[in-house]
Specification:
It comes from Paenibacillus tianmuensis. The protein has helices spanning about 5-20, 55, 90-95, 100, 115-120, 140-150, and strands at about 30-35, 40-45, 60-70, 75-80, 105-110, 125-130, 150-155. It has about 170 residues and is an alpha/beta fold. α5 (about 115-120) runs parallel beside α6. Bound molecules: zinc ion (ZN) (2 copies).
């Protein structure tokens, strides 16, 4: 018999399941809203309803320069990003009610970007649990979470369910 899963594993598994719905070839992100151990919403990154998504229309890529630190040295690196999709965290906020978010926990497969973190900080959510790191603006996001008094933690020793992980392009 399989060992019973703890709550963190259980809800992160569901976030990874949600992420498999994403049609963006660059990044599959899933997020779930949990209030008092009750699942109140699931979301993934995708184009608005009725609009062709990345699998039909291709990713909508923008290029930007990013300051990246490696081996103690800072370097400017050109990166590509798909802007066709609404991020999973933003979709989660669009499809849940304010009352359901008060004091809730968001489980998200990837560390939220600055915009999502900023929105989550004003959404009633009090804790964010993520799995894969996302280095861009990570310091700013952490500082924001601290200022806002929100719990922000990465799950370690966690293995996503088989078949739910796609390659991530940062
Ligand atoms: Zn895309
Ligand atoms: Zn985001």
């Amino acid at each position: 018999m399989m060992a019973r899963k703890d709550w963190d594993t259980y809800f992160m598994d569901i976030a990874y399941m949600a992420s498999t719905r994403s049609q963006c070839s660059r990044r599959h992100v899933g997020a779930v809203l949990v209030q008092g151990k009750k699942l109140l919403g699931t979301a993934y990154n995708g184009a608005p309803m009725g609009v062709p998504d990345c699998s039909e229309a291709g990713c909508m890529l923008v290029e930007e320069y990013e300051l990246v630190a490696s081996d103690g040295k800072e370097q400017v690196v050109k990166k590509q990003r798909c802007i066709r999709t609404i991020h999973a965290e933003q979709n989660l906020l669009l499809f849940t009610d304010r009352e359901d978010r008060e004091g809730s926990v968001v489980y998200v497969t990837d560390q939220p970007c600055w915009t999502c973190a900023n929105m989550l900080a004003n959404s009633g959510v009090s804790e964010i649990v993520f799995h894969r790191p996302y280095p861009k603006d990570s310091d700013k996001v952490r500082a924001l979470m601290e200022q806002r008094g929100m719990t922000f933690r990465q799950l370690d020793n966690y293995e996503p369910p088989a078949g739910t992980v796609s390659e991530v392009k940062n």
